[in-house]
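ok so heres the complex, eight chains, lmk if somethin looks off
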Amino acid sequence: MMHMDIQAILEAVHTGSLPVDQALEQLKTLPYDDLGFARVDHHRALRQGFPEVIFCAGKTPEQAAQIALNLAQDGQNVLATRADAAHYAVIHALLPGAVYNKTARIVTCLRETPRPLGPIAVCTGGTADIPVAEEAAVTAETFGCTVSRLYDVGVAGIHRLFDQLDVLRQANAVIAVAGMEGALAGVVGGLVDRPVIAVPTSVGYGANFGGLSALLTMLNTCSAGVGVVNIDNGFGAGYLAAQINRLAADKQEETS
Amino acid sequence: MMHMDIQAILEAVHTGSLPVDQALEQLKTLPYDDLGFARVDHHRALRQGFPEVIFCAGKTPEQAAQIALNLAQDGQNVLATRADAAHYAVIHALLPGAVYNKTARIVTCLRETPRPLGPIAVCTGGTADIPVAEEAAVTAETFGCTVSRLYDVGVAGIHRLFDQLDVLRQANAVIAVAGMEGALAGVVGGLVDRPVIAVPTSVGYGANFGGLSALLTMLNTCSAGVGVVNIDNGFGAGYLAAQINRLAADKQEETS
Amino acid sequence: MMHMDIQAILEAVHTGSLPVDQALEQLKTLPYDDLGFARVDHHRALRQGFPEVIFCAGKTPEQAAQIALNLAQDGQNVLATRADAAHYAVIHALLPGAVYNKTARIVTCLRETPRPLGPIAVCTGGTADIPVAEEAAVTAETFGCTVSRLYDVGVAGIHRLFDQLDVLRQANAVIAVAGMEGALAGVVGGLVDRPVIAVPTSVGYGANFGGLSALLTMLNTCSAGVGVVNIDNGFGAGYLAAQINRLAADKQEETS
Amino acid sequence: MMHMDIQAILEAVHTGSLPVDQALEQLKTLPYDDLGFARVDHHRALRQGFPEVIFCAGKTPEQAAQIALNLAQDGQNVLATRADAAHYAVIHALLPGAVYNKTARIVTCLRETPRPLGPIAVCTGGTADIPVAEEAAVTAETFGCTVSRLYDVGVAGIHRLFDQLDVLRQANAVIAVAGMEGALAGVVGGLVDRPVIAVPTSVGYGANFGGLSALLTMLNTCSAGVGVVNIDNGFGAGYLAAQINRLAADKQEETS
Amino acid sequence: MMHMDIQAILEAVHTGSLPVDQALEQLKTLPYDDLGFARVDHHRALRQGFPEVIFCAGKTPEQAAQIALNLAQDGQNVLATRADAAHYAVIHALLPGAVYNKTARIVTCLRETPRPLGPIAVCTGGTADIPVAEEAAVTAETFGCTVSRLYDVGVAGIHRLFDQLDVLRQANAVIAVAGMEGALAGVVGGLVDRPVIAVPTSVGYGANFGGLSALLTMLNTCSAGVGVVNIDNGFGAGYLAAQINRLAADKQEETS
Amino acid sequence: MMHMDIQAILEAVHTGSLPVDQALEQLKTLPYDDLGFARVDHHRALRQGFPEVIFCAGKTPEQAAQIALNLAQDGQNVLATRADAAHYAVIHALLPGAVYNKTARIVTCLRETPRPLGPIAVCTGGTADIPVAEEAAVTAETFGCTVSRLYDVGVAGIHRLFDQLDVLRQANAVIAVAGMEGALAGVVGGLVDRPVIAVPTSVGYGANFGGLSALLTMLNTCSAGVGVVNIDNGFGAGYLAAQINRLAADKQEETS
Amino acid sequence: MMHMDIQAILEAVHTGSLPVDQALEQLKTLPYDDLGFARVDHHRALRQGFPEVIFCAGKTPEQAAQIALNLAQDGQNVLATRADAAHYAVIHALLPGAVYNKTARIVTCLRETPRPLGPIAVCTGGTADIPVAEEAAVTAETFGCTVSRLYDVGVAGIHRLFDQLDVLRQANAVIAVAGMEGALAGVVGGLVDRPVIAVPTSVGYGANFGGLSALLTMLNTCSAGVGVVNIDNGFGAGYLAAQINRLAADKQEETS
Amino acid sequence: MMHMDIQAILEAVHTGSLPVDQALEQLKTLPYDDLGFARVDHHRALRQGFPEVIFCAGKTPEQAAQIALNLAQDGQNVLATRADAAHYAVIHALLPGAVYNKTARIVTCLRETPRPLGPIAVCTGGTADIPVAEEAAVTAETFGCTVSRLYDVGVAGIHRLFDQLDVLRQANAVIAVAGMEGALAGVVGGLVDRPVIAVPTSVGYGANFGGLSALLTMLNTCSAGVGVVNIDNGFGAGYLAAQINRLAADKQEETS
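and the predicted structre for the whole thing:
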């Protein structure tokens, strides 16, 4: 964000094409829009490779929809997570092209096809982890990844996982989503040679303590090559998987 | 402990062979010795099947040795856990037959060969879990079990465990000892059809929180048939395994 | 699960009765059905002695019912825990023989009488612990155990428990279910010479912290021979009790 | 502490025997000495019935000794808790009559015989709880109570406790000291009709978490009539027992 | 509960007036009624000085009412805590004399006037702590105490408390009820020379963590003579205060 | 509260204009009203510079309204926090001039214009933190501060904050409100040379643990000059900011 | 830090007195020195009003001394906290003027007299809190504050505090340092109308949990106007007090 | 690990070149060595891309050295983490080429130059985080990465970080190592478009709780694209960075 822009401005100041006052003003006009309750960051697609994402929890449907509209009017893809039916209704009223994935709780409104990225795999320990896994999968797909879903392959019936080793090993990154004991991430980490992204879920009861059990398991895994995201944070896992894939794609492009 | 004894006493009272005063006195003279700082329970071998065990941590070497002597003089086997070299030195001075297993931190002094019980398996996730596993194994052996040791078979290299399935499946009970993520218990629980006793260990660092991570993992395991003991409680696991084996042996004897 | 099957396959390959391709394919066709959202494990009854159990919490009624149907069609007994009225309604629609135990929150649909196993006792500290105790009791009964129920015998009125010592001591295993202080497990463990399975419950308030108090009490019990399951995990306790009883029954059969 | 004194002062002001300035000054000269690092409260014996107690932990031996000297010079009994050998050495140098109870970690220097109070009982779950119990017992004795010690009567061998019911029931208050599962307090509370003071200790390991397990057990006890003090706080328990006994003694005196 | 009864039985056996069989039977017929879901302890009024109390939370209205009826039919006073309107409705239908204190969430049905005990004071830090304080006050009143209520005298306006020192100091015991920071107990403990019973409440928000903040404050108080009960446990505090008062009353009677 | 008043009383006693009895009485008549459930502190505006504030959570609408009326009748400004619509309705019925800020959950009824204090800034990390920030802002405004609002300037898009450095640096104090990771306070603390008041919010999910994450972040900040208030405690932050500003205003007045 | 500097640079670029390259270079040459293991921030005295402080814990004596030397050579005052004797020895070898306050664990080396700021008060609950209080006091003095020390005035003997109300009320800010229950901050907050800075200490034992008890108390205080710093963070409190005082001094100067 | 090997074996069985018995034996002879206390996994370099790493904590120097020797004799590179001087001494005695990095606590003994991977950056918040950062950096270098070190760039002086944006943005992955508040990871995550690996450290004090504070901050970061490893787990971060880089390198090679 810093001196590359400044360089252009400095040169314009130097050549006199930009007065000092206006240069200062430009430096202050950073590329976001202030909606009062939120500052929408249009620069993010440049700076971080993906456009800004709307986290709907804690936002009113109206707030979420205003941000979505603002992004869409700028020509960017819209990805809104943790969206309930009310968020979708208001977003859809403003952006008729918006689509709602109920399981993943995600609203998307894509203006342009995302750049195709490589394959990833998303595994879950059980059936109840699927909503979090879908949040991860849909996020990654929105950013261009191809996603293989391996659901209900937890360690209590670990032979189910071994049957899918081919799929696991063809992925550029594997997302392991599990609640309860959360051992799936470590088992996957011991089987593949690609980055593993572990997502603890709050699925469980008793001494599960809202996902703490699975979180601690994943942080303490004896398998190396595992990075952990927050409890139930499917979006974060999908985003990180896309980030890793984009690096791979960039390197592929550089050489080809 | 109650009315079976009372019945004998009642009958003696009824027949007049036991005066009321002495009957009352007998009911009060429960079968333990009061050493001042400890009450040694000689009745335990009858009531619970195994003699009383000395937990040395928090006891002075002299206190531990006095209890050991008291049990030995009663003709019972001595099993002292969490014993350090100082405990052993004083016990050995009083009971020259005492033997010290340093890794397991256990002193034993066996007066009679234990009744032979069935086979168990003791697994560990890593090398650092071995002291706790040895506490479990030596405890179970002292109570008559035959122990197979499967060490360093944790989930990060899970194929090592599969190679030992024969051994696992011949055991009457399996003790799974693991720190860090503690996933071993769940994996073992998914592979065998016998009771699994899970022992979380404090091995690890960071968000391991002194064994809390492995404890929560084991309590939340998706595999059924798993009972958990306290962190680092190898003795408790060995004792429970022996308890289960003794039930099996009793049933075997009843029918044969 | 592994090389015994492989042996048969290897021999078929050796004799030429099975081509290499088909052998590989067979090794991949592990005995479960993929329902998309769940992989039903038909092999489990062989591998673990009891059929797969459906944990309804976090599953939609439709998902639970599909798994139940799939198992029933395979001729297996169905046991669905944490089932609410909605789960039952949909399961019952597909499996008219399904029965609902509301207190235990369990749906069963038994195709064959379970193999008779030995006696167990289920105790509770108070009246509010009964639903968890019933989950344990019904689970154990479904697997063939005979269950004695000793409810409301907590330590605040400990003489109530002593009156039932006969019942306790005839059991092959005792399940102690208690919330609040959770001391029941330790007291029972001091009185019997059989395995004790401790189930902390979330019954209580204040510094009970959702069952944490009873859980810690049970893990720290001074009584040996106690294995702990997760908070409110009545199913796990019933399953483990059945597992222990099955070991005893197997040994009995071997010798007779 | 307030207007009774103010009344005397007011009257002296009214009669002119005390100028307003001096009255104000007197109100400020509260009855404590400022040693710079500590303010010794001589008024406490009047206000609270017992003299101020010196908590040595975190104080240098010199600081502890100065406070002890200051109290002794005022003619008060000295009671210093959590005193190690170094504290005792320096106190003893200044107050040759000081006596050190090493197990209880208490230094006393009594100038006057305490008023005799009634009987209490101090129980421990195990041998390792004895230091905390002795802190409670010696504290209560210093304040005039008669103490019966019932050590190593924990719930794993609960019949040991029942043998002592006579002693328990003759006490005006019972102090129950226990680590690990901490169930002793609830069992005692179910057996006596006098106030029970529960002292959790940090004795134990693993999921004991420095006494948290016993603390939660005692707070959640189903037995009513139990008040809990801090982990390892033997002094607090002894003081509260004396406080209760003093109330009883006061009432006895009032009527006699 | 034990050998005093046994003595009578023994003597009857000895004189032949009681056959051995019937003696055994009598020993088993302990004085409680088994309602199936609960065992009502009629002996408690003798053993503990106060009749059994019904803790309604976790019990159905029907269960609570059956226990109440059972106690009332035995001629005992009924005290039911944590009762909501539904519990009251069913109890009232069976026991028309039952009275409901909505703030305290207590149903009482008194058959006999309780023995008059001494005065206590109940203080709260704020207005929101009043329901817990009322549970304590009504409990103590039901057991015969005279209660002074000092509400909203927390440390943020500590001069309010000082104005009431007379009332505080005339009490035989003081119950300090406070949420949030919970400092009230320590301040009261520094001002009176009678036992203080501290009740942390779950009143507050944020880092209050359901009453944990006030609980820890009270356990760590620098004031001696304070016993703590569970979070929101007004009943326990009222019961303990009555227990202390009954000791005082007994001593008063002994001497008079 | 103490001897300044006492001095006046003492002098009146001395001159005979105030009898001793009445002097005592006056000392007892501290300047608050006892409403039964609450003691309203009219003296607070003098003692602490701001009138008493009504914390509505845990109070019935009627209780809150009675306190509000009592304060208003005394001529004081009313500030009621955590007020929901029901609280407002009853307050408004008694005090028609009352105004409700729904986002801030605050009811105000101002009798006199507050003394003008200096400028502060209130920042939030995200949109969902705005309600807490508004509680802080409205509180500070009620006490006379001028408030600049900088919302949605969290560290994930930290350039948004830098654009507002002018505003930040003109404030006498900065309130940083943030949930999730809570890093905003540390970043602000590194940029300004004025006191920073950090308010963790419970905004977030998963390992946020109800605001614990942001709370710990803020307490552990490497930036000096940061004081932290309780989770979601916007009022506390606004009050402290006003307190700081009032000090500044007092010093300004003293010199001018 | 931003556009004020940029403006000067822009103008120099505009006038041609600064080439674009050098302008860019200047923008990169931020005013700190890179020592390899640390980046010393010389600009901080300008930006934040106080020079950078060296936190010695976790730094080798050599690292601490190098930073100290670097600051001193720049003519700045040196303040090194958490310094042990070894840190002091090496700092003193490089900076012979360095002075060590052992209780406060602070090394100072002052090149210029700090600007005189206003009075503050530092209180402690007990004697063991003094080291943390001294860290706060010496820090504040180094930054120019005048400090009144009120030690050992905790709530168990709260009348000691009231005697010092004059001193408390003359302070511009009050630092309340307390361990154990930590109630001092709330009591002070109820008595003064100036900002209160609360410092929880790790002094205590048992359920104190390393200062957590006092921390939660202080965060939950019912008194408004209290900001909390980290456990044992005397430096942070002294710094914040100085920050507040500097605001007051700035305002005083502006008007005079 | 599975059917690729099995295919070869199957074909050999099919052609008769491998008898069924030997095939079974081969399937059991998995490629690891059983040292008794540890099972060394030679296959790992193939399966996971990097050889097995020795975690020395909890292993005796002799155990660590035996594993190192075993790997080296197989021609593999040796990387031993958490090695203290004693571990190094014994390893060095067996492997004279072993090198010890004391700050990183790593012993390496490289037999072959690692395949060159891309650039990464390792940042720390402060000086005390350097040992963990070095563990990450040396690990990544051992696996072939080029590492830029940016130490002491924490958020309290955030302009230090901005000066290094070029370095950050040229990295394929960034490792952010920070204790205390741990905000560095979120700030870095907001500035770069590459995967960020966050390492919380136990550096800090008070409410840092052994790294919990930084851990929670990093899990709750509002910046997407961040994966977290265990507290102080520098190795895990370095390994994951190498894993990510190896993916990029593989893709680069595929296309070139």
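quick notes: Residues 1-5, 27-32 of chain H have pLDDT under 50 and may be disordered. thats all i got rn
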